Amino acid sequence: MLDAPKPEEDLLKMQLYMDVKDRKINTIALSNKEDMITFTTSSNQLIKVPINLERPSEDNKYEYLITSFHSRTITGMDYCIKKNILATCSSDKTVRIWQYSNSHYTQEV
To answer: Where are the WD repeats (predicted)?
Structure first.
């Protein structure tokens, strides 16, 4: 008979504490390599958090990827790992392309 795994062994737990004040998280995207999580907030900001699944106890520091370039709520986002870009779409009827490795806005569609 196999021993049941200990609770800390069967689940990977990560906690991230962010000062979000009156903002809400609208969307969350996980990169294809599963090494970064990106959030959009109700104030139309992108926040990226590098994650280390090998060492989950290490502090995961977040950084603002951009301040708001959309004039309305960001409704979706996705990564393209091959080109190192992130795309966001908004209820302002725009799609914006971001170079997420250096936090630069590159294009509006």
So the answer is: 67-108
